């Protein structure tokens, strides 16, 4: 296939954004008009330079166009949009039914450093006349291209307010310097991630003029995957291609090291030829070095190779479908580390062009891509995998936030920027209404009886909780989990919470790396070899973490409880069963086969009662709720349980609570059973102290307060003197399982550094 793109399509039908904005509440529109006064429409100039920035700007443009009572839209097209070698991509703007007010030919050909500088100069010469004619109230500028720097410079010098999209991000090339330079010229900022927001604050930008909205392209991405994609795949790659069995390659020159980036591109093509899979190769952008990269493509015969399709441009709607169903994407485009994560498609990021970007699990970095073998090995590792969907860069609601932000701009305020020099304001994020939008997690707790889902904030507040009986079959249980999670995720918008991911706490042995329940306890039926991560991630477009309930309890203590700041501690759950988690050097221990911290199955007697695990004399066989219930039934059957002050209805089930009540009321046999249980638990704790030597033991669960004194007594009698100083405390957390599930999400998403 040659370099010609498919023939021009008819104008696209009006998208969901336009329909959404036309259906906005009339009352709400009226309120905003009254607030702004004199019915002044905000005149917005959107300037787009290339195919990449248009994919981010188009959703905003649709939103602006759909509200003519608030906005007037002027579209200026410049840069590589108007160059035939780069696909004449201005046509896709026309196909989207936008009127282009001005076309500016600003690219000086040469594709080297000098040509980039000359292109900036040419744009600076031409833009003043356009801006004088348009007289916009505000100009929207995207990203970090040299064309965008010319736009921001012109607008700033002509006293036109600038709204910068995607400021505060970090990549790894000259783009960083350009992006931050535009930030200093811009009056308002729309950023995509929490880290970007913090970077803007650190750069002394006024926090009141920063909006954490997410990436506008995600508004389209997250609703795109279910469309008819096979016809698109066949159109670009051939009739015989299957989903997940092709590669999308997009690599640009690195302007700070052109020679190395061309060599890396050559090695990439060699690796792709050797890998022998159908590959769609997009031409690089207009940066210095792109001409040499095209020469490399032609030297290797890529345009005529049977396995390759080389194209100058793919419309964004179609590009979404191509990457969503690819076996892999390779290159150094920001699209790979940003947008593609929304689909969980594997990505190989080559070189340093995106160093510093926040990425999902789907991205494998080959920083020093200096040999064909390295790149080929990365292809072998990544091709065909499916990762959890990532929403690091957006939740699909960016455009409504941006439009509300635009409407809030007071044109009567002084134009001169104010910089907020240190000390920086508190870490507060603004949403559509300029109030705190809380970073939160969906927490799921799978117990033997109940299934619970909660929205948990970063501070450990349970904002909303849902409880249902845990179904007995796998199919019913998974269906209920998905239903409850979808309901909670929808409610999160109403309670002003931004969901970062889903954390699941479940009984049994769990492989947290894969999100699979390997096998479960007898308390949860049909719960072995269950992949929880994939269906939930696919349904919610959120990353999902899964771990054992004991481990989750330990994580809850580390983040919210007594274990906060403690380097080495152990948590013991005393409930229906006995479980726990071990924190060593601030990290959770899983063990080589994910069986660490099965503390309930420490054997404290060789001839003790039989445990549910099949062994004898385990702590759980003495001290769990099930064990106490068993002993209570024995006493009740012998009419030795009830004492004065106790009564039971005929149909009432005997439980551990009755045993505890009897002991408190002076039943010596009940008291003896509880003392034996406490001693068994204490001996188990002594074994833990002698093995792990923690500085803290936390007893959690409904039985913890009944056991704490017994455990301390056993430690004083049985432990080595060097460990007797350990602190033994009762957890103060009301819901450690849910808080632990939430911490899986909150800890991971807020501490990842690449």
TrEMBL record:
Pathway where this protein functions: Amino-sugar metabolism; N-acetylneuraminate biosynthesis
A Gene Ontology cellular-component term: cytosol
Top-level taxon of origin: Eukaryota
SUPFAM superfamilies: Actin-like ATPase domain, UDP-Glycosyltransferase/glycogen phosphorylase
Residues noted as binding Zn(2+) in the record, renumbered to the chain: 601, 611, 613, 618
Domain UDP-N-acetylglucosamine 2-epimerase: 70-407
Catalysis: reaction(s): an N-acyl-D-mannosamine + ATP = an N-acyl-D-mannosamine 6-phosphate + ADP + H(+); UDP-N-acetyl-alpha-D-glucosamine + H2O = aldehydo-N-acetyl-D-mannosamine + UDP + H(+)
A GO BP entry: UDP-N-acetylglucosamine metabolic process
Main location: cytoplasm
Alphabetical list of PANTHER family matching this protein: BIFUNCTIONAL UDP-N-ACETYLGLUCOSAMINE 2-EPIMERASE_N-ACETYLMANNOSAMINE KINASE, ROK (REPRESSOR, ORF, KINASE) FAMILY
Name of protein: Bifunctional UDP-N-acetylglucosamine 2-epimerase/N-acetylmannosamine kinase
Organism: Aquila chrysaetos chrysaetos
């Amino acid at each position: 296939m040659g370099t010609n793109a498919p023939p021009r399509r008819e104008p696209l039908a009006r998208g969901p954004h336009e329909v959404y904005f036309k259906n906005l509440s009339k009352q709400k529109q009226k309120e905003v008009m009254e607030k702004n006064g004199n019915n002044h429409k905000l005149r917005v100039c959107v300037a787009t330079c290339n195919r990449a920035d248009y994919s981010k700007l188009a959703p905003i443009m649709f939103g602006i166009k759909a509200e003519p009572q608030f906005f007037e839209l002027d579209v200026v097209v410049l840069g590589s949009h108007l160059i035939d070698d780069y696909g004449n991509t201005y046509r896709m703007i026309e196909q989207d039914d936008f009127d282009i007010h001005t076309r500016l030919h600003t690219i000086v050909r040469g594709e080297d450093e000098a040509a980039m500088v000359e292109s900036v100069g040419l744009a600076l010469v031409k833009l003043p006349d356009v801006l004088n004619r348009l007289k916009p109230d505000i100009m929207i500028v995207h990203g970090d291209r040299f064309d965008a720097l010319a736009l921001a410079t012109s607008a700033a010098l002509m006293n036109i307010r600038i709204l910068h999209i995607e400021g505060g991000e970090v990549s790894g090339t000259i783009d960083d310097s350009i992006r931050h330079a535009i930030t200093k010229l811009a009056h308002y900022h729309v950023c995509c991630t929490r880290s970007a927001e913090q970077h803007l604050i650190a750069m002394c930008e006024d926090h009141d003029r920063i909006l954490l909205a997410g990436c506008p392209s995600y508004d389209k991405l997250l609703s795109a995957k279910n469309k008819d994609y096979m016809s698109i795949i066949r159109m670009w790659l051939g009739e015989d291609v299957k989903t997940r069995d092709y590669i999308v390659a997009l690599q640009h020159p690195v302007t700070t090291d052109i020679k190395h980036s061309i060599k890396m591109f050559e090695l990439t093509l060699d690796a792709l030829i050797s890998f022998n899979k159908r590959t769609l190769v997009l031409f690089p952008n207009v940066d210095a070095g792109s001409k040499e990269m095209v020469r490399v493509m032609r030297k290797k015969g890529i345009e005529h190779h049977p396995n390759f399709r080389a194209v100058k441009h793919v419309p964004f709607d179609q590009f979404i479908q191509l990457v969503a169903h690819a076996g892999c994407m390779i290159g150094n485009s920001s699209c790979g580390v940003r947008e593609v994560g929304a689909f969980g498609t594997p990505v190989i990021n080559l070189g340093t062009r995106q160093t510093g970007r926040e990425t999902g699990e789907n991205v494998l970095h080959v920083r020093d891509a200096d040999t064909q073998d390295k790149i080929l090995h990365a292809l072998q590792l990544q091709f065909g995998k499916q990762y959890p969907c990532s929403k690091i860069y957006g939740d699909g609601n960016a455009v409504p936030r941006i439009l509300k932000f635009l409407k809030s701009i007071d044109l009567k305020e002084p134009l001169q920027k104010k910089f907020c020099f240190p000390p920086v304001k508190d870490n507060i994020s603004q949403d559509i209404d300029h109030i705190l939008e809380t970073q939160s997690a969906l927490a799921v707790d799978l117990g033997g009886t109940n299934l619970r889902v909660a929205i948990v904030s970063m501070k450990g507040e349970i904002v909303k909780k849902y409880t249902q009986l845990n179904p007995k079959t796998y199919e019913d249980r998974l269906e209920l989990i998905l239903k409850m999670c979808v309901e909670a995720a929808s409610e999160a918008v109403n309670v002003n919470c931004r969901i970062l991911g889903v954390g699941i706490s479940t009984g049994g042995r769990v492989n947290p790396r894969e999100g699979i329940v390997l096998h479960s306890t007898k308390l949860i039926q049909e719960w072995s070899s269950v992949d929880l991560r994939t269906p939930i991630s696919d349904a919610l477009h959120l990353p999902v973490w899964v771990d054992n309930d004991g481990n989750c309890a330990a994580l809850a203590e580390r983040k919210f409880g007594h274990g906060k700041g403690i380097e080495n501690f152990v948590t013991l759950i005393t409930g229906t069963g006995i479980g726990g988690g071990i924190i060593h050097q601030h990290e959770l221990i899983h063990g080589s086969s994910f069986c660490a911290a099965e503390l309930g199955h420490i054997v404290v007697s060789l001839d003790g009662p039989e445990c549910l695990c099949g062994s004898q004399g385990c702590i759980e066989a003495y001290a769990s709720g099930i064990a106490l219930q068993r002993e209570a039934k024995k006493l009740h059957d012998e009419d030795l349980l009830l004492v004065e002050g106790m009564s039971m209805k005929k149909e009432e089930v005997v439980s551990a609570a009755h045993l505890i009540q009897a002991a408190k009321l002076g039943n010596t046999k009940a008291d003896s059973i509880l003392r034996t249980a406490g001693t068994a638990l204490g001996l188990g704790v002594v074994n833990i102290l002698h093995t792990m030597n923690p500085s803290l033991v936390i007893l959690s669960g409904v039985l913890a307060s009944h056991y704490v004194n017994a455990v301390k007594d056993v430690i004083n009698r049985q432990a080595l003197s060097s460990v007797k100083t350990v602190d033994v405390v009762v957890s103060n957390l009301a819901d450690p399982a849910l808080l632990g599930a939430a911490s899986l999400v909150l800890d991971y998403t807020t501490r990842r550094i690449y």
